[in-house]
């Protein structure tokens, strides 16, 4: 149970800190959330800087052009970037964390040469077309159909939750190539050029009022067969391979951000006098203990990944716990801000302890975090699905009954 | 960094598990339910010979020379097996009280109570296993707000015969395997002027012993919590209702999944607290990145680990009873013993409310 860092790990951290301290002050101002073209420029510029410094694709193997860093180094990278306030992965998310790793593992030499370098250099942006209105937790129910026509697929259907799609160059697309009821066995993985004719995007406003996602409608979109990754009808396995790249660091940034927000909340509680309430103090203490435990769990998951352990299962335990603690944190923030939490733009308090000067309340940031926290138990596998995974794959409890076949008139297939 | 149990630690855990299965099977433990003395001196000596109490004592003092992380692994197994007796007190007393390290003495540990404000009720002071104790160490209580680094009190060894002289046994106890005595408060001889346990009156020794005790008690609780996941899961696989195992119903599966999440996160917290106490460089680094001191890192991690482990043990034992349905409410099925032990441990060396307060001061 070694928590000390090796000389190499310490050197990696020192170099990274030095580089971040040099480069972060040179960044331009962050564009507003609704400015998608601005966000693309900002995020891809950051990716370019990472590339030039040798940090691009930190978790990618060297044969894919990545840095091939160890899981511990990946953890250090995320920790230092978060502590230094470096930009988030932003619009590079799908390319770096999903599409790239999939192409590394399953792509042809031509696909690797064509698509991997532009992701690392911040030249091309990807979006994801997996979920559908009728295929959420039950992704294998997807119905977007691809019909072979010579050396093309003709694709029709609709996708949902396609993030960054307004500025994406390519999409990773799961389509039905097998019979309607073929489920996992009839899915293929395609690269969708986003400038293809027949694509329509409709922004989807989140409850926070931001356009984080879109719906994507595909009407007879022609995709060359050589843009298929993996074999026809083997797309489910191809998708699962991507998940094996996860090294237990998926929520490091969020966890460290939660710890920072908790420190800010303590400051707010001291300022308003709520700190005199033992119940408030104990909730703050309990949250800190939980976040510390999750930080320890992260180190355990990362250590297991470093030895080639099965990733993903410890990740489910982490995600279940973090989702609940993140929501508890945000609920506490809303209570402490009281009616100031009804305002989503920044407010100030008067500091009566000094000269009555204005003190920023941080309410806008906390309200934003509150919106985000509500999606924690839904996005990337709902907590209910995660509990099924934990109880079936770790505890070995019996599986859910198999879903009814399409056409049998059940609710599963009737939509 | 490689934050996983080492091969040696896994072997150590397996060894202790085998010892518990051979020497402390549940039916033998249960034979002493309600007895005035639940500790069998031969079994206690065997624990001592196995190194359970002297694990962290240096080898030149007759100990095993290992760290708190190793002790956490061992105590999780003891908790899992519901081994009764003053395990935590005897562990912290090893090297300080003659015979503790070898399992030839049983030593209790109690927390010094704060002065009671006028107009409040003074709660009774209860000591576990007093009838068979050879020593009793009094450590400082959890720190107050504004004293984040802990109290400077020395740990004090009190004259157990004197304490026993004024004690009355509690007729029936919550945990039938944890006999209790009501004693005078303050404990006779527990004043700060009494000789400190290490003979030097070392400032802060009471707090240091309390933190060691917190970590191994938390490890016992992780053992309780983890065992309850196993018992609930085994029962859910085997118990049939509506023509299928109840473990196939999501309502039961999700209960079990939540139990696993609690025991796994608590275990990581306990291991981290122990590893930080063993590895000054790691504590130093944590302190640097959080803008605190290594002492605060250790206090916070030990308190937080005990808080989460208490919660995991209680919630998992309750969940285990729930999965067992009506049978879980009977005396015969042993799952109630885990809940009762969890309650006993959750009151020792700091209540959940006090532990949460301690962690809050360090945020």
Name some characteristics of this structure:
heterodimer, A: 415 residues, alpha+beta, Butyryl-CoA Dehydrogenase, subunit A, domain 2, Butyryl-CoA Dehydrogenase, subunit A, domain 3, four-stranded mixed beta sheet, four-stranded antiparallel beta sheet, 12 helices, 15% strand, B: 363 residues, mainly alpha, 2 domains, three-stranded mixed beta sheet, 8 strands
Descriptive notes:
The complex is a heterodimer of chains A (415) and B (363). In chain A, helix 1 (7-23) packs parallel to helix 3 and helix 7 (252-272) runs antiparallel to helix 8 (278-306). Chain A has 415 residues and is α+β, with helices and mostly antiparallel strands. Chain A is globular and about 75 Å long. Chain A has helices at 7-23, 36-52, 71-84, 93-106, 109-120, 235-243, 252-272, 278-306, 313-337, 363-376, 383-394, 411-414, and strands at residues 126-129, 145-149, 152-163, 170-176, 187-193, 199-204, 213-224, 228-229, 348-351, 357-360. Chain A has a four-stranded mixed β-sheet. In chain A, strand 2 (145-149) and strand 3 form a beta hairpin. Chain A folds into three domains: 7-88, no CATH class; 126-243, Butyryl-CoA Dehydrogenase, subunit A, domain 2 (Beta Barrel); 252-394, Up-down Bundle (Butyryl-CoA Dehydrogenase, subunit A, domain 3), CATH 1.20.140.10. Chain A contains twelve helices and ten strands. By secondary structure, chain B is mainly α. Chain B folds into two domains: 7-183, Acyl-CoA dehydrogenase/oxidase, N-terminal domain (Butyryl-Coa Dehydrogenase, subunit A, domain 1, Orthogonal Bundle), CATH 1.10.540; 205-362, Butyryl-CoA Dehydrogenase, subunit A, domain 3 (Up-down Bundle), CATH 1.20.140.10. Chain B has twelve helices and eight strands. In chain B, a hairpin with a 2-residue loop joins strand 7 and strand 8. In chain B, helix 4 packs antiparallel against helix 8 and helix 8 (250-278) crosses helix 9 (280-290). The longest helix of chain B is centred in the middle third of the chain and has 34 residues, at 205-238. Chain B is globular and about 65 Å long. The mean pLDDT of chain B is 92.
């Amino acid at each position: 149970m070694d928590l000390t860092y090796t000389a190499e790990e310490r050197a990696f951290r020192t170099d990274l800190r030095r580089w971040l301290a040099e480069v972060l002050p040179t960044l331009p101002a962050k564009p507003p959330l609704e400015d998608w073209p601005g966000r693309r420029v900002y995020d891809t510029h950051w990716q370019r800087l990472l590339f030039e410094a040798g940090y691009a694709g930190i978790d990618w193997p060297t044969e894919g052009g990545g840095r091939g860093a160890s899981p511990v180094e990946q953890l250090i990278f995320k920790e230092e970037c978060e502590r230094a306030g470096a930009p988030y992965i932003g619009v590079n998310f799908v390319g770096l964390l999903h599409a790239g790793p999939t192409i590394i593992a399953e792509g042809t030499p031509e696909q690797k040469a064509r698509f991997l370098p532009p992701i690392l250099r911040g030249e091309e942006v990807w979006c994801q077309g997996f979920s559908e209105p009728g295929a959420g937790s039950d992704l294998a129910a997807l119905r977007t159909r691809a019909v072979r026509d010579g050396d093309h697929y003709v694709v029709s259907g609709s996708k949902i939750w396609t993030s960054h799609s307004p500025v994406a160059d390519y999409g990773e697309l799961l389509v039905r190539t097998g019979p309607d009821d073929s489920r996992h066995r009839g899915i293929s993985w395609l690269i969708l050029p986003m400038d293809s004719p027949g694509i329509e995007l409709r922004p989807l406003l989140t409850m926070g009022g931001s356009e984080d996602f879109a719906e994507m409608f595909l009407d007879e979109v022609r995709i060359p067969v050589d843009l298929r990754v993996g074999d026809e009808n083997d797309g489910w396995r191809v998708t699962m391979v991507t998940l094996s790249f996860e090294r237990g660091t998926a929520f490091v940034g969020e966890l460290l951000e939660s710890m920072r927000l908790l420190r800010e909340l303590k400051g707010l509680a001291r300022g308003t006098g709520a700190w005199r309430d033992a119940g408030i103090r104990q909730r703050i203490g309990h949250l800190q203990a939980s976040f510390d435990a999750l930080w320890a769990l992260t180190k355990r998951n990362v250590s297991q990944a470093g030895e080639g352990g099965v990733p993903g299962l410890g990740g489910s335990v982490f995600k279940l716990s973090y989702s609940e603690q993140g929501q508890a944190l945000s609920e506490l923030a809303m209570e402490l801000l009281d009616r100031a939490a009804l305002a989503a733009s920044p407010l100030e308090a008067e500091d009566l302890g000094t000269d009555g000067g204005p003190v920023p309340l941080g309410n806008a940031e906390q309200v934003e975090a509150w919106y985000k926290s509500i999606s924690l138990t839904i996005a990337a596998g709902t907590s209910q699905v995660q509990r099924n995974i934990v109880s079936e794959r770790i505890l070995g409890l019996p599986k859910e009954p198999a879903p009814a076949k399409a056409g049998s008139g059940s609710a599963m297939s009737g939509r | 960094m490689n934050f996983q149990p080492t091969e040696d630690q896994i072997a150590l855990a397996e060894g202790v598990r085998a010892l518990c299965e051979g020497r402390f099977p549940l039916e033998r433990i249960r034979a002493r339910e309600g007895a005035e003395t639940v500790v069998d001196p031969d079994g206690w000596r065997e624990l001592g010979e196995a190194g359970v109490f002297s694990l962290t004592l240096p080898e030149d003092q007759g100990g095993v020379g290992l760290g708190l992380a190793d002790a956490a692994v061992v105590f999780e197994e003891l908790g899992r097996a519901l081994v009764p007796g003053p395990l935590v007190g005897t562990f912290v007393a090893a090297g300080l009280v003659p015979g503790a390290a070898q399992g030839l003495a049983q030593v209790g540990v109690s927390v010094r109570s704060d002065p009671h404000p006028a107009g409040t009720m003074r709660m009774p002071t209860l000591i576990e296993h007093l009838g068979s104790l050879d020593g009793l160490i009094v450590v400082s209580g959890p720190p107050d707000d504004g004293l984040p680094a802990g109290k400077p009190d020395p740990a004090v060894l009190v004259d157990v015969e004197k304490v026993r002289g004024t004690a009355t046994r509690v007729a029936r106890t919550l945990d039938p395997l944890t006999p209790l005595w009501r004693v005078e408060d303050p404990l006779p001889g527990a004043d700060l002027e009494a000789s400190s346990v290490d003979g030097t009156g070392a400032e802060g020794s009471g707090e240091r012993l309390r933190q060691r005790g917190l970590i191994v008690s938390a490890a016992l609780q992780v053992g309780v919590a983890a065992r309850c996941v196993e018992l609930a899961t085994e029962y859910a696989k085997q118990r049939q209702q509506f023509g299928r195992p109840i473990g196939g119903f999501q309502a039961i599966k999700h209960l079990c999944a939540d139990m696993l999440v609690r025991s796994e996160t608590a275990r990581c917290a306990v291991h981290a607290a122990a590893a930080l106490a063993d590895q000054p460089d790691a504590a130093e680094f944590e302190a640097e990145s959080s803008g605190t001191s290594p002492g605060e890192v250790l206090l916070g991690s030990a308190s937080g680990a005990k808080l989460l482990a208490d919660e995991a043990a209680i919630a998992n034992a309750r969940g285990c009873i729930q999965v067992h349905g009506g049978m879980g409410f009977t005396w015969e099925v042993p799952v109630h013993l885990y809940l009762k032990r969890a309650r006993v441990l959750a009151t020792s060396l700091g209540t959940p409310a006090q532990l949460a307060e301690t962690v809050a001061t360090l945020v």
